[in-house]
Design brief:
190 residues; 8 strands; globular; alpha+beta; 6 helices; two-stranded antiparallel sheet; 28% helix
Length: 190
Amino acid sequence: MYRKSFPKCKIEGDFEPVEFEHLMFQGAVPKKCSLCSNLFEGECLRGIELMEDYLTLDHGACKIEGLTHPVEIEIKNGSPIYVPKKCLECQFLLKSNSRGYICISDKNVWGDFPRSLDWGDWKPDYPIAGLRIDKAMIVTKELIALLIDKKTVKAIKLYRALNAIDTIKEASDAIKTLSNKLNEHYNNLS
């Protein structure tokens, strides 16, 4: 589930809950998020260009101590799903049909906007990128590594296999889009 948590939020602020409603959903969001222009429908836009998806809000560290490196919890559509190690056996970890794995600690406070999983100081060793065409496409660490290493043909083959793409042109266009996103990401770091 770290795909929904990175890049990490860099905004400093108060994590105290502030009441929040969106459509039929009610609960709270962290105060720092309630004041932020990236708040959208109870989620965050901070990585929208790279991910083409909303990210989780930053609730800060949870009260449970433990290791925060990723541990595989299941395979979905051929891709592993990870949670922080300390969450693996935690009573507050719940699989939601709409949000994937979530933390239900303090559910009475956060309501329909659950706490984000606590990844501590851990961060992925590669940029997390996403792609939506008519749905969210599968983009794995191996695919990103191929693109970073400029192994475009292998990346096209892997992308086609991961997403059951019929045409080379469709896969090639998607790989070009992902490559451009990664190049822009690295240019922004400079």
